[in-house]
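REVIEWER CHECKLIST
Item 1: Sequence provided? yes
Item 2: Single chain? yes
Item 3: Sequence as submitted:
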Amino acid sequence: MSKQTLGLENHIYQYLLSVSIREPEVLTKLRQETAKHPRNIMQISPEQGQFMALLVQLMGAKKALEIGVFTGYSSLVVALALPPEGKMVACDVSEEYTSIARRYWEQAGVADKIDLRIAPAIATLDRLIAEGETDTFDFAFIDADKSSYDDYYERALKLIRPGGLIAIDNVLWSGQVADSKIQDNRTKKIRALNEKIHKDERVTISMIPIADGLTLARKN
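Item 4: Structure as written out by the authors:
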């Protein structure tokens, strides 16, 4: 897992940040606080966050779904990109990690946009489907436990409207997916989903080599 774009020499990466990133102060503060967290590797990179925000704005998205919140950088960057009436359902299992997220959502003035569901994400997604939310979300971001990625993808595909977009994080997995000698469960799950999406005619796709790899899947 990498929190900056793979394959770039550090001086090039630092240049990219210096001429590209327009990060609001609240996002910078959250990123800096999370950098001190023992699991800071789980946070997305600023260049990925800014890219996702641009996608949300280009789509005119009003309703978003996040699977995996951690300390809230990705949910905050998306919520800031949503219009004032925009809404997000955010799924996580950790009160501890998301307490940091809640604090920064409040500081940024977007807490009212975000409906945080503390429960196993599959249960939350199944509940949304049962409540008639199929085909109603514009954008979904998947960045939770890798062993359940396929389950999250299938449910997100139901919840996203035709023309909506699913973004799936860590699809390059620090390059491990390209090494056939690596056969641990998480790597195999990501590798299998990559291969599945490549052949999935329900979506139009592009795998973007930003940060740790980001697959974009537009529902046909």
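Item 5: Key structural point noted by reviewer: The radius of gyration is 16 Å.
Item 6: Recommendation: ____
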